[in-house]
Amino acid sequence: MPTFSSELNNLFTSTLYTYAQKKSVDQMYKGSVLLQKMKSKGMVKPADGGAHIREPLRTGQSPIYSIDYRESVQLLPKEILTAAIYDWRIIVAPLLLYEWELDLNTGSAKVLNLMQERMDEVTQALRENINQQLFADGTGNSGKDIIGLAKIVAATGTSLGGVSTTDVSTWFSYTDTTSETVGFNAISEAISEQSYDSEPDLIICPINLWTTLHNSLPAQARYIDQTVAQWGFSNFTVRGKMPVVADRHCPAGTIYILTTDHLKLRYHPKRNFTPRGFVDVPNMLATANIFTFAGNMTCNSRRTQGVLTGKTA
User: Fold this and answer.
1) Is residue 260 a contact partner of residue 41, using CB atoms and an 8 Å limit?
2) Which of 96, 151, 202, 244 has the smallest number of CB atoms closer than 10 Å to its CB?
3) Does the residue 215 lie in any domain?
């Protein structure tokens, strides 16, 4: 006798599985301007399987020196740490259906509608949860959350990916902890200090700081990034090209000035919010499908990232 899970798996065809996975990923991006920006830069990438995620560093510390034209090139032995190592973090999004609910929705069309409603609930919760983790430090849920900006964008003395400033002297971010009213001078200084091989391309702050900055600009100087606007995020630009966006998950008084060329979301090719298939829940009149993600947020150049704290509106 077929089980409820086998009947649902027959109904939930490979086409629907693909649609469900794509929708869960799309919803995750839609809730985060950071992920949208990283995706547009090609910085959402699969990571090869292994015990850890390996991220090659961009530190600007390869041995470079000048010589006289009569000198031979010295291949100086120098130990250079070439990669940061990040742990895999796993996120699950369960979709639960009770058999009684299925009994009340007899017929393929009604069952599909019910699954669609539950999928919408799951993806909305997923979007909120991921965005919260993006601004945290990875210690949430007993250290099982993905690493976020609070860990990646930090001052000297903080390690990341098994690398410290003892290993790589440039392995820290620009920080400004001055308590003051928010203004463009501090932001402009941070941009200049962080600009190496590329400039920052995204600035994120709380809603109240964004409003203060936005209102301080003359109307004729409020230029916007059209691409970011099309993603659904209100913005204005600094230096004519760097979008400033508000996010309610950004910590109070904090402004992140990011170079997304050096930030990535790495995921396992088999675990990119992939549905596992419906299975019967033991000792319950229910069936469940679990969407799983395995990966982490990584950085290969901390000196190109910056954070301002202690700012008030």
Assistant:
1) yes
2) 96
3) yes
- DSSP string for residues in 269-282: EEEEEEE---EEPT
Q: Would you say 31 and 133 are in contact if contact means Cβ atoms under 8 Å apart?
A: no
Cα dihedral 43/46/49/54 (nearest 10): -10
Residue at 68 is within a domain:
no
pLDDT digits (tens, 9 = 90+) for 119-172: 888 888 888 898 999 999 999 999 999 999 999 998 767 899 999 988 888 899
* CATH code at position 241: 3.90.1690
Task: Classify each residue of 190-223 as buried b or exposed e, where b means 16 or more C-beta atoms within 10 Å of its C-beta.
Answer: bbebbeeeebbbbbbbbeebbebbeeeeeeeeee
What is the rounded distance in angstroms from the CA atom of residue 7 to the CA atom of residue 13? 11
Give the highest mean pLDDT range of 6-15, 279-288, 290-299.
290-299
Residue 92 lies in a domain: yes
Length reported for the chain: 313
Number of structural domains (the chain) is 1
293: containing domain: 4-62+77-312
- Which pair of tokens denotes residue 74? 């010295």
Q: Which residue has the higher pLDDT, 58 or 257?
A: 257
